[in-house]
Amino acid sequence: MPSQTPPGARQVGAAWTHQRTSLTITVCRACSGRWFPPREACSTCASTDVEDVASDTHGTVYASSVVRIAPRGFQAPYVLTYVDISGVRLLAHSPTSDQALKPGTPVELTVASIADTDDGALMSYTVTPLADPHTPTGEER
Fold first, then answer.
1. What's the CA gap between 99 and 87, in Å, rounded?
2. How far apart are the first and last CA of the chain?
3. Which of 12, 69, 83, 91 is the most exposed place for a label (fewest CB within 10 A)?
């Protein structure tokens, strides 16, 4: 399915439709290595026999942190989360929470604005908790 980027927004890192959000993951046919973002050659065995596959739509939180000092265009505080999905670990924003997500929390890939730039909203893949979106990890504000 073709991706559908909202008008006036820039898209970073994901393809999405109104039905589902997925990432493109590279899988090595020689050694089964997996990467995100996609690559043209395997970093493990140097094979160029790789294929791109669509990721699952759900993953699990590995670790999460609240960013309190933001670069230009980003509004602090915001939550960054390492997520395990389809055999890769990636870093994503968690815009529906203002607290770090607990490791093991199930999440769904979504798309949201992660920053405002001079060119408009910067849209990217994000993760949304499937359970309670405000599950604290003990970090106090």
1. 25
2. 42
3. 69
Segment 50-96, tens digit of pLDDT: 999 999 999 999 999 999 999 888 889 999 999 999 999 999 999 98
State how far the Cα of 141 lies from the Cα of 133, in Å rounded to an integer: 16
What does the angle CA 137 – CA 126 – CA 66 come to, to the nearest 5 degrees?
Answer: 35
Q: How many CB atoms lie within 10 A of CB 55?
A: 22
The answer on pLDDT for 17 being more than 90 is: no
d(CA 117, CA 10): 10
CA 64 to CA 81: how far, in whole Å? Answer: 4
Q: Which residue has the tokens 């893949």?
A: 125
